[in-house]
Amino acid sequence: MRTTHAFLMNTTILIVVIGMMGCGDMSRRGTDTVIGAGVGGVAGAVLTGGSALGTVGGAAVGGVVGNQVGK
């Protein structure tokens, strides 16, 4: 179980880092949205023990928060 959780966390972090590399030509608000979604997804995964619904929900909430902070 611990190995699966570690694999999930490492994979999520890798996807976030790769996704952020594509943010070079984005607006500040767009970048904040992507970062918020990434952080929210990781937080959702951690808080729900790797649940897919928790990860997606965290990413959605984080994206909205990041978008609003970028205003």
From TrEMBL:
InterPro entries associated with the record: Gly_zipper_2TM_dom (IPR008816)
* Keyword check for Transmembrane helix: yes
Coiled-coil-forming residues are: none
Q: PROSITE patterns under this entry? A: PROKAR_LIPOPROTEIN
Q: Which residues form the Glycine zipper 2TM domain?
A: 32-70
Pfam families, alphabetized: Rick_17kDa_Anti
Provide the transmembrane region boundaries.
6-23
Assigned GO CC terms: outer membrane
Q: Name it.
A: Glycine zipper 2TM domain-containing protein
| Organism (species) | Paraburkholderia lacunae
